[in-house]
Amino acid sequence: MSHTHDLSLEGQVIAVTTDRGHHFSKPPRDQIVLLEGHGV
Questions:
Q1: C-alpha of 2 from chain center
Q2: Alpha-helical runs (H) found in 1-40
Q3: For 35, left (φ over 0), alpha (ψ -120 to 50), or beta?
Q4: Tens digits of residue pLDDT in 1-40
């Protein structure tokens, strides 16, 4: 038996933060680059 799932989601990004180190606090960014297979 084949099941089809609708995985479409709606959302809103309100903030993006990044840091090259593994720190608790990260500075906000205007933009980020997503790389398929690699992440952010």
A1: 30
A2: none
A3: beta
A4: 566 677 788 889 898 888 878 878 888 988 888 888 886 6
Q: Domain ranges in the chain?
A: 9-40
Give residues with Cβ within 8 angstroms of 40, minimum separation 6: 18, 32, 33, 34
Q: What's the length of the chain? A: 40
- Whether this prediction's pTM lies above 0.85 is answered by no
Number of H helices, E strands in the chain: 0, 0
Residue showing tokens 């933009």: 31
Pair of tokens at residue 32: 């980020």
